[in-house]
Design brief:
Helices cover about 45% and strands about 20% of the residues. It has helices at about 5-25, 45-60, 75-80, 95-105, 140-150, 165-175, 190-195, 205-215, 265-275, 280-290, 300-320, and strands spanning about 35, 65-70, 90-95, 115-125, 130, 155-160, 180-185, 200-205, 220-225, 250-260, 290-295. The chain has a 6-stranded mixed beta sheet, with helices on both faces. A 5-stranded mixed beta sheet has the order 7-6-8-5-9, with helices on both faces. Strand 1, helix 2 (about 45-60) and strand 2 (about 65-70) form a beta-alpha-beta unit. About 45% of the residues are buried.
C-alpha cells in the first residue's frame, strides 16, 4: 500500500466516524429513555418533565419514562445520571438547585460543569409565597410585620435544604430582616401536605405547583416573586409591590445528559424540544401551570448555567448558609 493511499484512508476515518454518529442519532432512540427527576413526584420539576416526556414519546416513537429519584437537594438523582452511560438513554431534568448545590455542598460526588452535557433550558416560572389560611397575614407587608412581632415563631417549609424554595425563603428573610425557621422536606409533596395541615406557616414554591391549592382555598397566596404580576394570576400582587421592594425569585428547569453523550443526539433532543415548545397546546398547558417555555441551544444553556452558578455562589457566601 502506497503512502498516498494510507494518507487518504487516514483522512477518511473522521468522515466515516462522523457519518456513523449521524446515522446513530437518526436511529435514536431504539429503546426506552429514562428521564431522571431528582425530586419527589408532584413538584414543578416532576410536572414539567412529564409533559415533555409525553411529547418526546409521541415525536420520537420510543417511551421517555420519568424516574423520580429524590434525595439531598437533587444530588442523589444527579449523581446517578452523572455516572450513567453517555448514550442518550439517561437524561436529567434539573432545577435551580443544580446551580445552587456547588456552593452549598462543596464536596459533591460529581462536577456540575464537567460531568454533564447541557441539552436545553426548558422552562421558567416565578416563585409564590403561600401561607396556611389561618395565618393572620394577607400580603408581604403584613407577613413582615407579623414576623417582627413574633420573632422566630414562623416556620417555612421547602423541598429540601438548598433547594430553590429554601433559597427563595432565605432571600425573603434576609431582605426583610426577619427571623423565619426553615423546615426542610424531601420534596414539595410532603412539604405541601404539612403546610395545608397547618404544621408549618409558609412556603416559597414555584407558582406552577402551588396555584391549584391557592385556587381551592387550601393555601393563601401572599405574593409572586416576579417583577410583574403573573398573567395567569393577575389578582396576586408581586412581593415587590406588596411590601418588600427588590425581591425577585423565579425557578427554572433544564435538561442534561451525561458528559460525553454524542453531540448529534444532544442536538436532536434540543431541536425536538424546540419544536415541542412551538405547539400551541403545549404552550397553553405550560402557561396554565405558571411556567413559560424557554428553550435554547446547548451552548446558550451552558452559559446560563455558568452565570446562575456564579450568582448563587455569591448569595450563599454572603448569607453564610451551610449544608445540613
Amino acid at each position: 500500500m502506497t503512502m498516498m493511499r494510507i494518507w487518504k484512508i487516514a483522512r477518511a476515518i473522521p468522515v466515516v466516524a462522523l457519518l456513523a454518529i449521524t446515522a446513530h442519532a437518526q436511529d435514536y432512540p431504539v429503546k426506552s429513555v429514562r428521564i431522571i427527576v431528582p425530586f419527589a413526584p408532584g413538584g414543578g420539576t416532576d410536572l414539567s418533565a412529564r409533559i415533555i416526556a409525553q411529547k418526546l414519546t409521541e415525536a420520537l416513537g420510543a417511551n421517555f419514562v420519568v424516574d423520580n429519584r429524590p434525595g439531598a437537594a437533587g444530588i442523589v438523582g444527579s449523581d446517578l445520571v452523572a455516572k450513567s452511560k453517555p448514550d442518550g438513554y439517561s437524561l436529567l431534568v434539573v432545577s435551580s438547585s443544580h446551580a445552587i448545590n456547588p456552593a452549598m455542598y462543596p464536596k459533591l460526588p460529581y462536577d456540575t460543569a464537567r460531568d454533564f452535557a447541557p441539552i436545553s433550558l426548558l422552562l421558567s416560572g416565578p416563585s409564590l409565597v403561600v401561607a396556611h389560611p389561618s395565618l393572620p397575614a394577607k400580603n408581604a407587608r403584613e407577613l413582615i410585620a407579623l414576623a417582627k412581632a413574633k420573632p422566630g415563631t414562623l416556620t417555612f417549609a421547602s423541598a429540601g435544604h438548598g433547594t430553590p424554595p429554601h433559597m427563595a425563603g432565605e432571600l425573603f428573610r434576609a431582605l426583610a430582616g426577619i427571623e423565619l425557621v426553615h423546615i426542610p422536606y424531601k420534596g414539595n409533596g410532603p412539604a405541601y401536605t404539612d403546610l395545608m395541615s397547618g404544621q408549618v406557616s409558609l412556603m416559597f414554591p414555584n407558582i406552577a405547583t402551588s396555584l391549584p391549592y391557592v385556587r381551592t382555598g387550601r393555601m393563601r397566596a401572599l405574593g409572586v416573586g416576579s417583577k410583574q404580576r403573573s398573567a395567569i394570576a393577575p389578582e396576586i400582587p408581586t412581593i415587590h409591590e406588596s411590601g418588600l421592594p427588590g425581591y425577585e425569585m423565579s425557578s427554572w428547569f433544564g435538561l442534561l445528559a451525561p458528559a460525553g453523550s454524542p453531540a448529534a443526539i444532544v442536538t436532536r433532543l434540543q431541536q425536538e424540544i424546540a419544536r415541542i415548545f412551538k405547539q400551541p397546546e403545549v404552550r397553553e398547558k405550560l402557561y396554565a401551570q405558571g411556567v413559560e417555555p424557554v428553550g435554547g441551544t446547548p451552548q446558550e444553556f451552558t452559559a446560563f448555567l455558568n452565570a446562575e452558578t456564579a450568582q448563587w455562589a455569591k448569595v450563599i457566601k454572603a448569607s453564610g448558609l451551610k449544608p445540613e
